[in-house]
Specification:
The chain has 78 residues and is mostly helical. It has one domain (3-66). It has two helices and no strands. The chain has helices spanning 3-26, 38-63. The protein is elongated. 5% of the residues are buried.
């Protein structure tokens, strides 16, 4: 996947997760409760995290080392 495809997928999955989270909030379902939409939320969250990881690797490949500032601690390098 290229940068454009990954970003588009992250946006799509982000909207999907946001929709589920808002729906669960309307139903007053706690995030940890295995109520309506929990399996769907877990699946979307997993896919979103996967694509975010792909994006991070793509950024590292294109931008090299030393470019991170805010996310440096997330890589164990800060």
């Amino acid at each position: 996947m290229d940068l454009e495809e990954i970003l588009a997928k992250i946006v799509e999955l982000g909207h999907e997760e946001l929709h589920i989270v808002r729906k669960r909030a309307e139903e007053k379902t706690p995030g940890s409760e295995h109520g309506h939409g929990y399996d769907e939320l877990a699946q979307v969250a997993d896919r979103l995290d996967h694509h975010a990881h792909l994006l991070r690797r793509l950024h590292d490949g294109e931008l090299g080392h030393g470019w991170r500032h805010e996310s440096r601690q997330d890589t164990g390098g800060g």
